[in-house]
Write a structure and sequence with these properties.
The complex is a heterotrimer of chains A (415), B (416) and C (175). Chain A has 415 residues and is an alpha/beta fold. Chain A has 2 domains: 248 residues, Aconitase, domain 3; 138 residues, Aconitase, domain 3. In chain A, the strands form 5 sheets. In chain A, strands 4-3-2-5-6 form a 5-stranded parallel sheet, sandwiched between helices. In chain A, helix 6 links the parallel strand 8 and strand 9. Chain A is globular and about 60 Å long. Chain B is 31% helix and 19% strand. Chain B is globular. Chain C is globular and about 45 Å long. Classes of the chains: A alpha/beta (415), B alpha/beta (416), C alpha/beta (175). At the A-C interface, helix 2, helix 3 and helix 5 of A face helix 5 and helix 8 of C.
């Protein structure tokens, strides 16, 4: 009988050829990522546990992104503690202002297909875009992984999502994952692995896949996986080995559920306030006045997202009294967007472009709103109070839709 | 008897032939600029008026620049109040386009104008021969409702500039040196006027930087003559008309005249926690820094970015330093983008932010923590200005800041 | 860990996310103690001040969804909450709670029945009793119980690293 992608990955990595969904196994981490918000806590727990050294300092990546630039007086304490930790334990991979952690983990080559990666952030599921098993953990568990290099986990059941056909022109991978979240609901894949397959996702860029893996956690999934292919290999700058090539879900594997979608059936959608699974077609929302648009985050702050926004905003102006805030996901993306002319286009249209980082998505600065304001955003969460007061209305959308709304000053369907 | 530039502008705005220092006159205002630091308070007061009215909405310019993008529900509410009011009343409104004084210089200010701004650094406009002065909300509201205000004609301190800057010194080093010399209250209530053959050697960017900082010596306003540099700047920025180009009369009365040899000026820093605690940079070299800031209405123009970029090009910011580069306006950003300066800063490891007041305002973007040291091209180094009350701000030129960011400690370009 | 206890309940809804439990704005405060007043503030600003030690939180499905912030279970524990009873939990929150020794109880029916201010009795790994009726609860897997019994993952790791716990006899001293 066949195996799911996650079963194949765990079997190979544990040497336990019979590992299957439901089994509890212990795995070794290939990489771990800690970001600035949690480093003081990781450090405290790590030292409290009595560890003297990191099992393999080369495997840890420390990234400052949530607090860059600092917006509260105590924020820089996190940088100081991070810098001290890096020096004491001999870290070689520290990024202080290079962008959002999840973007850097894939972009800088820290993650390869078949890897097992843990991060102190729920959106660590992102690396499933290259066929890595990656998931978010808390800082106490991270401290134990830093000491031992190992973590227990339950091999998850898999929900397979097949998408075949050609997506409509105004539909992006963000619309696809939002629709799936709406169907599965916010707890529909809790503890489970989502496995995306079909010719539609095969044609998607790694960046587009990243959006989907990133948001897998929004239906509770432990991971959101894509089979590595030539695009993955090119993105990672590698040639896939036999193990990596074997990483796809067998058709005769045991899936808890299989969802089949026709790409042609997708339409532009938004997640309405204040649940990620409250999905409605944009056509139902047209005419809703907006105050702000945010394009950025580890979900949708990549070059193709800025290109989509620039294509809409070229020669146009952001609607009067509406703010458009653009926060590229990484410095590399920011610079590539400068070279491609997107930055100029966006600035001429009236956007505010901030330095790469989590920005508004993590709700500490970068465009906080107040009561009764409405924002269309390309990030991953629209929870109550996430971007200001609990009376802020957050709609999640694709970059294409978000940019279109910025020009119109109200919710419109992208063309 | 002759008049100073300040007297001439007030006389014109008051409709009088001659005015003299110490007199109080009612003047017509050409513009009233206000930003998100206090506009919400002005609106609150306006709405409590029995007969609220605006004399001329075309005279109002409102600019959101202090907390941009917004950093808290509280500032978001203040900004929303400002935005909604501007929208309802048809007031010129800018948000995210840059720092108020830079936008005013680029788009509104003309020689001879009388301008009130609800911000102390409104004296910047003297670089363009306009009488700009900072006022509080109550004065602003009165101006908004009546289109006029009262002013006491200030005495003038005249600074005669001679020669040319050298030794790696910039206009910022010049004005810091002057403030160090006359003290933080050395020009209280007075106008600081700059003239002399040396003025012609200074670009508009230099002049804006000089006039901007005059409030740090207590000046009510700063003024410069209108010359070819002024006219060229106006031509390049929307071909604005000159309202009235003034120079002080030879027999004008000055409270004091200072002769300044530009070639004697050396790079300086203002040490914590006073703008007039000025010493040659050489005396502070080696002081370890945590953050460097290149930006603000004082030093965030294209010339400053060029100077900074030239120094960091091909080098890396010290690992422990956060280097914030913040263009003063959208136009400055776009020009820096075209010239490749932003790419240079990013390559070096800088944080390049959207145009705004940033850490010069010190309440959000780039705030520094307890015990940390910032070297800044901002306007002030008061205790706690940039973050924690136990932090330290040094003010220096764009060159000093850029060099320090690379070195990780206060340094000049010659130390790299 | 007490095996049986009772407590007054606070009732919350479905999908209580970690941004509600501890908003990002306060995540970089210096300690969990400093964060306590802001717990649940986007939803109920007064709740953190009202919760008394020993109280029990009752919620619907998917409690703790959202981010990996461990401040969420830590702050709940710091408020003195003895247990959470919910229809289901999000994955990371579940692990984080166990690692911090915060007891999570899953029950599908009870959350729809209890009223705020009611009292329920808990017997760990067996049942919750409400108004004289028993609602059975599933026991936790052994590896998780071990962590809970050790007092959380930090203590479990201290044991691994040979660090003696307070009150634990040091064999060498008795020689």
């Amino acid at each position: 009988m066949g195996a799911t992608l996650i079963e194949k990955l765990i079997r190979h990595r544990t040497g336990n050829e019979s590992a299957k969904a439901g089994d509890i196994v212990t795995v070794r981490a290939d990489r771990v990522m800690v970001h600035d918000i949690f480093i003081p806590f990781v450090k405290d727990k790590f030292e409290e546990m009595g560890f003297q050294k990191i099992w393999d300092p080369e495997k840890m990546v420390l990234i400052y992104d949530h607090l860059v630039p600092a917006s509260q007086v105590d924020d820089t304490r996190h940088f100081r503690i991070g810098d001290e930790f890096a020096e004491r334990y001999g870290l070689t991979h520290v990024h202080r202002s290079d962008g959002v952690c999840h973007q850097l983990m894939t972009e800088k080559g820290y993650v390869k297909p078949g890897d097992i990666v843990f991060g102190t952030d729920s959106h660590t599921t992102t690396y499933g875009c290259v066929g890595a098993f990656s998931t978010g953990i808390g800082y106490t568990e991270m401290a134990s992984v830093l000491g031992t290099g190992k973590l227990w986990l339950r091999v998850p059941e898999t929900i397979r999502v097949n998408i075949n056909g050609t997506l409509p022109k105004n539909v992006q991978s963000k619309d696809v994952i939002l629709r799936i979240l709406g169907d599965l609901k916010s707890d529909g894949a809790t503890y489970k692995s989502l496995e995306f397959a079909g010719d539609t996702v095969e044609r998607m860029s790694v960046a587009s896949r990243m959006t989907m893996s990133n948001m897998a956690v929004e239906c509770g999934a432990k991971c959101g996986l894509f089979a590595p292919d030539e695009k993955t290999a090119a993105y990672c700058g590698i040639t896939l080995d036999d193990f990596q090539q074997s990483l796809y879900g067998d058709d005769d594997a045991v899936y808890e559920k299989v969802l089949d979608y026709r790409a042609e059936d997708f339409v532009p959608v938004m997640a309405c306030p204040s649940q990620v699974d409250k999905i409605r077609p944009i056509s139902d929302l047209v005419g809703t006045k907006i105050d702000q648009v945010f394009i950025g985050s580890c979900t949708n702050g990549r070059l193709e997202d800025l290109a989509a926004a620039a294509s809409v905003l070229k020669g146009q102006k952001v609607a009067p009294f509406v703010k458009l805030i653009v926060t590229p996901a990484s410095k590399q993306i920011y610079q590539d967007a400068m070279k491609a002319g997107y930055v100029e286009t966006l600035m001429e249209a009236g956007a505010m472009i901030t330095h790469p980082g989590c920005g508004l998505c993590c709700g500490r600065a970068g465009g906080i709103l107040t009561d009764d304001e409405v924002v269309v955003a390309t990030n991953n969460r629209n929870f109550l109070g996430r971007m200001g007061t609990s009376k802020v209305q957050i709609y999640l959308a694709s970059p294409l839709a978000a940019a279109s709304c910025a020009v119109a000053g109200e919710i419109v369907e992208p063309c | 008897m002759g008049m100073t530039i300040a007297e001439k502008i007030i006389a014109n705005a008051a409709g009088k032939g001659v005015v003299g220092a110490g007199e109080i006159h009612t003047v017509a205002l050409d513009y009233l600029m206000s930003n998100d630091g206090t506009t919400h308070l002005t609106i609150d007061m306006y709405q409590k008026l029995r007969h609220p009215r605006i004399a001329d909405t075309k005279k109002l310019v409102w600019i959101v620049d202090h907390n941009v993008p917004c950093d808290s529900p509280k500032t978001a509410a203040s900004q929303k109040k400002m935005r909604d009011f501007a929208k309802d009343h048809g007031i010129d409104f800018y948000e995210g386009d840059g720092i108020c004084h830079q936008i005013m210089a680029e788009k509104y200010v003309s020689p001879g104008m009388m301008i009130f701004g609800a911000d102390s650094h409104t004296c910047t406009y003297g670089a363009l021969g306009a009488f700009g002065t900072g006022v509080g909300c109550t004065d602003y509201l009165y101006g908004m409702v009546t289109g006029t205000s009262w002013v006491m004609v200030p005495e003038t301190l005249q600074f005669r500039l001679h020669g040319k800057l050298g030794h790696g010194a910039t206009a910022r080093d010049l004005i810091l040196t002057i403030i160090g010399q006359i003290g933080a209250n050395g020009a209280n209530y007075k106008a600081m006027e700059f003239t002399g053959d040396g003025l012609a050697t200074l670009s508009m960017s230099d002049r804006l930087s000089i006039c901007n900082l005059c409030v740090e010596a207590g000046a009510k306003t700063a003024l410069m003559e209108t010359d070819a540099v002024t006219l060229e700047y106006l031509k390049e920025h929307g071909s604005r008309e000159v309202k009235a180009a003034y120079t002080s009369d030879p027999d004008a009365v000055f409270a004091k005249v200072y002769e300044i040899d530009l070639d004697q000026i050396v790079p300086v820093v203002a040490r914590p926690h006073f703008v007039d605690s000025v010493v040659p940079t050489t005396e502070s070299k080696g002081t370890r820094i945590n953050e460097a800031f290149l930006g603000s209405c004082n030093n965030g123009r294209i010339e400053d970015l060029r100077l900074g970029a030239e120094i960091v090009k091909g080098r890396k910011v010290a690992p422990h330093v956060r280097f914030l580069v913040v263009p003063a306006s959208r136009d400055v950003y776009l020009e820096a983008l075209k010239e490749g300066l932003l790419q240079t800063f990013l390559d070096a490891g800088a944080i390049v932010m959207n145009p705004n007041c940033s850490v010069c305002w010190g309440s959000c973007q780039g705030v520094i923590g307890e015990g940390e040291v910032l070297i800044s091209t901002g306007t002030r180094n008061f205790k706690g200005r940039a973050g924690d009350k136990n932090s330290f701000v040094y003010l220096g030129s764009a060159a000093t800041v850029a060099a320090s960011a690379i070195k990780g400690a206060i340094a000049g370009p010659e130390d790299l | 860990m007490e095996r049986t206890f009772s407590g007054r309940v606070w009732v919350l809804g479905d999908d209580i996310d970690t941004d509600i439990i501890m908003p990002t704005e306060y995540l970089a405060l210096k300690s969990i103690e400093n964060m306590k007043p802001y717990a649940f503030s986007p939803l109920r600003t007064d709740l953190a001040g009202q919760i008394q030690p020993g109280d029990i939180l009752v919620a619907g499905k998917n409690f703790g969804c959202g981010s990996s912030r461990e401040q969420a279970p830590e702050v709940i524990k710091a408020l003195g909450v003895s247990a959470i009873i919910a229809k289901s939990y999000a994955r990371i929150f579940f692990r984080n709670s166990i690692n911090n020794g915060l007891l999570l109880i899953e029950n599908a029916d009870l959350p729809d029945l209890v009223q705020e201010g009611d009292t329920v009795e808990v017997e760990v790994g067996k049942e919750v009793v409400y108004q004289g009726k028993s609602y059975p609860t599933a026991p936790l897997p052994q590896n998780l119980l071990d962590i809970l019994e050790a007092g959380g993952l930090v203590k479990a790791m201290q044991k691994l690293n040979g660090i003696k716990q307070k009150g634990e006899a040091d064999g060498r001293d008795t020689d």
